[in-house]
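Recap from last week: sequence in, structure out.
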Amino acid sequence: MNWKKIRKYLPILGVGLFIYLLIKLDITKIFQEIKNLNFSYLFIVVILLGIFFITQTLKWFMLAREQKINIPFKDAFKINIISDFYGFVTPSKIGSIMRVDYLKKYKADTGKGLSNFVIDKILDLSSLFVLTIGFSFIFYREIIFSIVSPIYQFIIIAFFLLMILLCLLFYKKEISKPIAKTIYRLFIPKRLKEKSKILFNSFYEDMPPLLFLGFVFIINLINWIVNYVMIYFIGLSLGINIGFIPYLIILPISTLVAQIPITINGLGTREITMINLFGLFGVDKVKVFSMSIMGIIISSIIPAIIAIIFICQKEK
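Predicted structure tokens:
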């Protein structure tokens, strides 16, 4: 089995799943749903989209400032939209690491820029885990147990706790140094040894305190909820009126599934998850898929167009 070839073509799986759903659910019905949506709700969605990008920028802007990366908020906002665009077209949004390159303009070397990205990504995923576990068990424990067996739920929780433990351990330079030395000695080529040493030291330079990271974590939680409120109003525009609580249970789960790096931006896998979970509340498949398409158009494609404009301006 050639894993390199499989990994190369694996992202196409999501596109295939998406197209399969599009055909199976009848394209004409989907377009009819979108055509008949209530546009008055979309005005609220646009406002929420602006709030979402402001809070999303704010979290890593504060993180960057704490790491002594002196970037103006206006520039941070532009870079955030650009990195979000690169994240949109890559599995698990890994393309947003392009932010590291943009931060060099503000005297942040690769190590510090990478540190900024890694911390932000960990806090992002951690807050998503907390929302997924918290809302699922608080509100609809019996429904979640009917979908996923208890053993798998405990595995998810154990994985999350292990991830937090590892992050806390590697947060300290002194703890990670022996592991880094082993990797340095065994795997780093001689020509890259000096650069890797500089990269390691700059990664831990101006590391933010844990209390501050806890504050950024709370902003992350707020940011996710703003995102889900936005999708809730898109759902209302399509006539999906099942209350906000089911959205708080379903959307974190589908977002978490979308983080699995087997498709481009979770395309296809997210939609299948949403269709199955919203189906438990009696929501029509076509409406759920239409909501997902509208969500992609508003929260990803429109910002992507703005990002391309910013990228072209930078190149000029």
